[in-house]
Amino acid sequence: MISVDTSRRRVLRNLLAGMSGMLLSGCDALSRSEWFPKVLNVGERLSQSIQNTISPRRSMAQEFGEADLSPTFRSNGTSNPGDPIYQALAQNAFVDWRLQVDGLVEQPMAFSLAQLRALPARTQITRHDCVEGWSAIGKWKGANLGKVLSLVRPNPSARYAVFHCADPMDDVNTRYYESIDMEEAYHPQTILAYELNDSALPIANGAPVRVRIERQLGYKMAKYIMRIELVNSFAAIGAGHGGYWEDQGYEWYAGI
Amino acid sequence: MPGNESDVSLDSRTEPPGRYWYARHSLIVRISHWINALALTLLFMSGLQIFNAHPNLYWGQSSYSQRPVVLAIGAGMNAGGQPIGVTRILNHVFDTTGVLGLSREDGQLAARGFPSWITIPGSRWLAMARRWHLFFAWLLVFNGSIYLIYSVLGRHLRRDLVPTRVDWRSIGRSILDHLRFRHPVGAASKRYNVLQKLTYLVVIFGLLPLMILTGWAMSPRLDSIIPGWISVLGGRQSARTLHFLIAWTLVAFVLVHVFEVMITGVWNNLRSMITGRYEVAPGPVTRDVSHDQR
Predict the structure, then answer these.
(1) pLDDT (average), residues A230-238
(2) Distance, CA of B64 to CA of A72 (rounded, Å)
(3) B204: which residues sit within 8 A by CB, 6+ positions away?
(4) Domains in chain A, start-ordered, CATH in brackets?
(5) Residues 139-158, chain A: which have Cβ within 8 Å of B?
(6) A215 and B227: CB-CB below 8 Å?
(7) Cα(A18)–Cα(A24) distance, integer angstroms
(8) Is A4 near chain B, with CB under 8 Å?
(9) In this predicted model, what pLDDT tens digit does every residue of A116-174 receive, in sequence order?
């Protein structure tokens, strides 16, 4: 009953190939258009508002045991910043490194690594989820970012913490940067990590300090941090989207 | 199966002679069907582009446990020094040159997981694929919610999808009919057969909710609602693997679904899912569900 002659089969095949070709080139044209990605951005705003609504603001990321640790913690992106100032700091075990904390604060401050280590610390074994799809589990120890912020006393107008980093991303002096809102900055698991797996944070993983933002994807967790700036808008920084990868089209809210 | 008789005679008695039109699908079913078809297509293709950013699958919480890799797609060299596409499923290695691992992109051979003709966008572009994926994921969730509310309150679920006692008894017969590509005509064609009902129920209440759940399990923020809940799925990397496998299960469903649509009257089926009107062909009165009366 279902004998299909070859010419009909050919017509059907051409029809299907034509339809899929149209779908693909149509979708690619939409991706490159000015307006369609803006429509798609509704998805990011929905994810952010719905996730903020259904999960408590202070909900905690899952923590693991020593047995779950990944044998080596994968280094992704920059593994050794080529910047001469950074290299000089690294030569001297970051003794001369200072973390500048400024912007919309009453008391700008600079912290040495020793001063950060003297602040209240938190140790956590967490899963790091990369936007690419892989996950690794590491044990992090670092200073509570909320504690650091309370020392510099943010102005009420401060809405975001911007992390300025040492790693050059291209030849025109673009540096890695990232930003989070104040809610995320004061989260108990948000730490300025200086230790990974009970050793000083390796250069491959962001020495001397990287931030851990455990409820978002890996690219939010800036490495090689030099300065934290509190702002009420990141429109004037980089291309204005709040981070290096955000400027390349990734979502600012990386909760999924 | 003598129990079928009463059901059939009831249908047969009200059966008008000749062909006639029947309002098969309600407006909400028709609209939600096509939104669902569009969203699933775009989700699948943008999902494969996202997969290509790291074309490996693992079981467990992390990608760096001691467990073997479930699936790995990559490019390599053969003995003659030629580039090849290699796909590894657990311990089995396959040469998949041209399709997986190594395929043509704008005329050039490129190392990539799935080929460009099945991904959105076609060329490597993770950020844009995520935008497509997460937008249409929300469309799928809202569309599915409206459909579910309608199905329960509008009785579509109980009237059309839940198998009746007669259905359960005809299941063996229905399997044989499907294998022989025989499908009911006349009054019996107005209702879904039992395999069709069960398949739709598995897709609506099994595969699609699991797809959404495994998608949420990959969100570090949603994982924090109840810390550790994703261990139920085996961990985050297991959730990613399940997400991938269920996506292909849905593809298998769609292939069978489209095949059945084609062999039971393409235009009649398509029309009924667009305008709602389905043409019922006259069938032998005795041949509906009552297969024993001959």
Answers:
(1) 97
(2) 8
(3) B148, B151, B161
(4) 4-248 (3.90.420.10)
(5) none
(6) no
(7) 10
(8) no
(9) 999 999 999 999 999 999 999 999 999 999 999 999 999 999 999 999 999 999 988 89
The nearest alpha carbon in chain B to A69 belongs to B65
All domains of chain B in start order, with CATH: 20-53+124-280 (1.20.950.20), 56-113 (no CATH)
Q: Please work out, in degrees rounded to the nearest 5, the angle formed at the alpha carbon of residue B46 by the alpha carbons of B42 and B52.
A: 155
Q: What share of chain A is helix, strand, coil (3-state, %, to 5)?
A: 35, 25, 40
Q: With CB atoms and an 8 Å threshold, state whether A62 touches B227.
A: yes
Residue to substitute from B38, B123, B141, B224, interface A, most A β-carbons within 10 A: B224
Weakest-pLDDT range from A46-50, B13-17, B251-255: B13-17
Mark yes or no for CB contact B219/A255 under 8 Å.
yes
Whole-number pLDDT of residue A6: 73
Reduced 3-state DSSP string for A116-182: HHHCCEEEEEEEEECCCCCEEEEEEEEEEHHHHHHHHCECCCCCEEEEEEEEECCCCCCEEEEEEEH
Identify which of A242, A247, A132, A251 has the alpha carbon closest to the alpha carbon of residue A180: A242
Across chain A, the runs of DSSP E, i.e. the strands, are 98-103, 109-112, 121-129, 135-144, 160-168, 175-181, 191-196, 199-200, 210-212, 225-231
Which residues on chain B are in Cβ contact (under 8 Å) with A71? 64
Per-residue confidence at A15, pLDDT binned at 50, 70, 90? confident
The answer to whether B138 contacts A2, with C-beta atoms less than 8 Å apart, is no
User: pTM for this one?
Assistant: 0.92
User: What distances in angstroms separate CA B136 from CA A77, B162, B174, B249, one per listed residue?
Assistant: 29, 28, 35, 19
Distance (Å) from the alpha carbon of A81 to chain B's nearest alpha carbon:
24
Asked whether the predicted pLDDT for residue B12 surpasses 60, the reply is no
Residue B78: CB partners within 8 Å, gap ≥ 6?
B84, B95
Average pLDDT over residues B282-292: 52
In chain A, residues with a C-beta closer than 8 Å to the C-beta of B43 are none
Q: Which residues of A touch B41 (CB under 8 A)?
A: 23
Condensed to tens digits (0 to 9), the pLDDT of residues A53-67 reads 999 989 999 999 999
What's the rounded mean pLDDT across residues A67-96?
Answer: 95
Minimal Cα distance from A68: which residue of B?
B65
Cβ of residue A247 closer than 8 Å to a chain B Cβ: no
Q: What is the mean pLDDT of residues A41-46?
A: 95
Chain A residues touching residue B63 (CB < 8 angstroms): 70, 134-136
Q: Which residues in chain B have their CB less than 8 angstroms from residue A28's CB?
A: 120-122
Average pLDDT for residues B182-197, to the nearest whole number?
Answer: 90
